[in-house]
Amino acid sequence: MIRCLLYVGVISTLTCFYIYCDDQIHHYTNQFVVWCDNESSEDIIAEWRLSEQFTIEKNGAIAPSMKIQEAWNLGYNGSGVTIAVVDDGFEITHTDLDANMYSGYHYDYVDNDTNPDPADGNDHGTMCSGLIAAEANNNECVVGVAYRAKVIGVRLLASSGTTDLMESRSLSHQRSIADIYSNSWGPQDGSGYSDTGSLVKAALLGGITSGRSGKGSIFTWAAGNGQKSDNCNADGYVNSIYTIGVTSLDSTGIPAFYSEVCAAAMATTYGGTYTSRYLHSTAYSRSCANDLQGTSFSTPVASGIIALSLQANPNLNWRDVQHLIVLTSKKYTLTDSYYSWQLNGAKKYVHPRLGFGLMDAEDMVRYASTWTQVPSQVSFQSSTSSPNSYVGASGVSNSITIGSGCSIQYLEHVQVQLSFQADGLGYVELTLTSPSGTKSFLMTQRYLDYNNTGSGTWTFMTVQHWGEAPQGQWTLKMVVAALSGRLYSWKLILYGTQTDPLPNINVCSVNPCASGQTCTGNNYGYECINVTSTTTSTTVSTTTSTNAPINGGMAATTVSSTTSTTAAIAGGVAAGAVLVFVSVAIVIKLSVGKATPVVPVTA
Ligand SMILES: *[C@@H]1O[C@H](CO)[C@@H](O)[C@H](O)[C@H]1NC(C)=O
Ligand SMILES: *[C@@H]1O[C@H](CO)[C@@H](O)[C@H](O)[C@H]1NC(C)=O
Ligand SMILES: *[C@@H]1O[C@H](CO)[C@@H](O)[C@H](O)[C@H]1NC(C)=O
Ligand SMILES: *[C@@H]1O[C@H](CO)[C@@H](O)[C@H](O)[C@H]1NC(C)=O
Ligand SMILES: *[C@@H]1O[C@H](CO)[C@@H](O)[C@H](O)[C@H]1NC(C)=O
Ligand SMILES: [Ca+2]
Ligand SMILES: [Ca+2]
Ligand SMILES: [Ca+2]
């Protein structure tokens, strides 16, 4: 299988940049702070790298912050939490990592041995590991987000490619020990629909049901670097409900140029960009990297933040972690020239390339520490609508009404299982509009697939309706902007809870409230309302629709009975073994394969 490392740019490994002040060596971290040896954490100062100049500012001057230092200040450092990093190999003897590498637990699924050191000198896995757990106060490289967590190195990716079996073993490696599996890899960007194999599906389901003593393994996943001309919903790893998709933010407050359109992504973290600022980390040969960019690097930052949260509350289950991210990630004033924020029906701001916004480590650990497990998950399948319509440039809309037979009142994930055909697969656009009016961009144009014909059934996933009540009319619009296609049939698979998952939490998503307003609970979502006003919003309503249930009031079922029946759509992804290193300008193939060079439309 083609599985790519999701970083952008030509990676060079330079020695660390050091800043000298008071004769002490200061080290970068990717909270954009510099760690000064021999100084207490209170003295950690913020830093941005500006071109080749160093600008030192007080922490907090950089906005918005991921609040990692604030989480450290609350006493969290990842101690007791184990992260399996599934990647291309690890320098387990790197002196900025070795104290946190979990010796005896690593594995190399390429060579089938216990040494994950990459014989080929690859250093992507070493770079990802440093962002999570590089050591603090040791005069080297950087400080990881969870600098006292343990890392298990799982070598999966090599020029020989992967198999479903290798991937599944990697994703279930040391399941009773590993809390988080951090994944900065995936299908080739830009074209094709690439699903997880059946063994990976079983590994993910097995992880969330039996990992962490039944609370569920946490799988973080790089959302992909296909830019806005790719859509992560063609990536079966990111669009699984069991994985936490992470996109990248540019330091100027816009999505990183390589971030994809991704209704399945939960949140964003800084990922580095050559146009603004890079991230720094450890690199192979005991060196440091200072030029990292890609969702590959946002994902370990998210894994580190989740590790801090699991230290704050080891009882969090896999859905608690996702709820925490939805609750605490923030919109700030982040903008995008291509897509807008929407206030969804649960009063949560969502963005097609940034999910619920920038992760906030301080809020994650604060809410985690007093968290009550969310109610059990229920799922609901609508009946199938079969319009069997021709679709052209003007598009076809088709609706499914969810009635009171659906007991879910607070949505989590929404899946659309669609059977379709297109003469120009890359011209397909799919938009799902919920009863609350929130739009999910389930598929957007992908120019590398313009000439590919495809047909089949595919499951698209969105988290953008999180917290909404599902009762009412859902509309799927399919457009084939050039050439043509058919919408054969579709159905909705809904996941969520029957009762308020956050009954004791009252947070305004429009914060702070203006003078004269107060933060008032509105089921899942909370909003600022005018205290003197007699009317409150009815956007989120627990009143069930008067529409008749279209599937005869089917009872709620548990998640484990629902598995994806996704099948690959023909076109695009070639079989073969390649690692693709995506540069700003072109895909560089490091080995044989039939991958199509990617020519980005921007940058
Ligand atoms: C840190 O403090 C120790 C003990 O005082 C000293 O030996 C060491 O040189 C200091 N390191 C730096 C980088 O200043
Ligand atoms: C990390 O956190 C643990 C648990 O709170 C604490 O015991 C330990 O001292 C911390 N270690 C460092 C280096 O901060
Ligand atoms: C590693 O083990 C897998 C599964 O048993 C096998 O398919 C593969 O050929 C082995 N690889 C090597 C290099 O021995
Ligand atoms: C699609 O086909 C047209 C016409 O043959 C060609 O000009 C274009 O380069 C092709 N696009 C891709 C992405 O292969
Ligand atoms: C809130 O109520 C006050 C007093 O009635 C009114 O002047 C103000 O315009 C209201 N603000 C909003 C946002 O509705
Ligand atoms: Ca080896
Ligand atoms: Ca260090
Ligand atoms: Ca992609």
Topology diagram in text:
Elements: E1 4-5, E2 13-14, E3 19-21, E4 24-29, E5 33-36, E6 45-50, E7 53-57, H1 68-73, E8 82-87, E9 107-108, H2 124-133, E10 142-143, E11 150-155, H3 164-171, E12 180-183, E13 185-186, H4 198-210, E14 218-222, E15 243-249, E16 265-270, E17 279-283, E18 287-292, H5 295-312, H6 318-328, E19 342-343, E20 349-350, H7 361-369, E21 378-381, E22 389-391, E23 396-402, E24 410-422, E25 428-433, E26 439-443, E27 454-462, E28 472-480, E29 485-497, E30 517-522, E31 525-530, E32 580-582, E33 587-589
The chain binds 2-acetamido-2-deoxy-beta-D-glucopyranose (5 copies) and calcium ion (3 copies).
Domain P/Homo B: 373-500
Family: Belongs to the peptidase S8 family.
Signal peptide: 1-21
